Amino acid sequence: MDAAVRVRRASGADVPRLLPLCVEHAAFERLPHALDHAAPDLTAALDSTPTLLHAWLAECGDEAVGYATASLDFSTLAAARYLHMDCLFVRENWRNRAIGRQLWQALHDFARASGCRQMQWQTPEWNTAAARFYRRLGACELRKRRYVLPLDADMPQSLRR
Q1: Cα Rg, the chain, nearest whole Å
Q2: Which of 68, 92, 111, 144 has its CA 20 to 30 A from that of 75?
Q3: For residues 140 and 112, what is the distance between their CA atoms, to the nearest angstrom?
């Protein structure tokens, strides 16, 4: 039997544990990553006041097995605060053990405690397992296109489409 998985809030001190998960997540989503020099920026975002990036780590013993990150934002059309879930990732060998559900619940609880009326996020269109997971949670899907316009000259060429 597996040891218990614990989900906890992460801070800048956790970036060395968080960064490998982010790299693995980017590879899973078939995205090039520019995380080689990201540690200082992630640390600053997690430890800023007010906090720019909220993060949670899922751990089993000393092993980090998943993470979730989010930011608080405001929707003009809903005229309300919402939580934007940026990432929710569980390592492949740890999937189907309700870890994603634990991470999502931590985000959900935080959103409610922060006075948010909604949670919003996106997932790659090809990721049918994630879409199924989110529908089971009660989420509804909106058809939109997501655009990215890199403003950093050091951004990898593949992100500059």
Answers
A1: 16
A2: 68
A3: 18
